Amino acid sequence: MKLPPVILVTGTDTGVGKTITSAAIAAALHARGRTVAVYKPCQSGNALGDSDCAEIARLADPVTSEAGVVLEEPMAPVPAAALDEVTLPSLAVHANRIRELTARHDHVLVEGAGGLLVELDHDGGTLADLGTHLGGMAGFAVVARPALGTLNHTALTLEALDSRTLPVVGVVLGSWPARPGAVELSNRATLRSWPVPFLGAVPDGASGLDPTDFRSHAGEWLEGLPV
Known about the structure:
39% of the residues lie in helices and 23% in strands.
């Protein structure tokens, strides 16, 4: 598929590498001469210094990098908001901001919280529902672990997207090991054989690279990223 204006980056679970993959996508697009904005609907973990937007900005230097709401505890948005005693923005608010960003950038990367069906507001709205709000302007990039169990988790995420008729840009393996074993190599080969495009693999430890090196290699890691 042609790369849509909005790319919703989701994961098969938390901690699979969504943030670094988002940075790599942003860097790869920037290398193609595209302007990129990064939007995180709900950023949790501020009390621990977590900021996915700041990390992506450090590595990829997108034009814009912002969060819809910042929450203190490293938890899912709804319970984190309850502890902070704040009201989460609705999906409509997020969708409107994303549309505003598309007017000034070639692409907007939207990083979800945890997996596809984690609730982002008080009405049960998820990243999948946000994709429905955005309609044909958006597609999903699914970030998966390379380790044992990833095929089931990835298939479940893709099935959830397909059941909602939401387009998929492709699958990325996050945290690809420097010395992959038989399991990782088999999983990569299997994902390549699926009908959903395989976009590539981001190396484990990529966030530790100098930002200049990170940006120069991002396009190689994501060799399957469509134009």
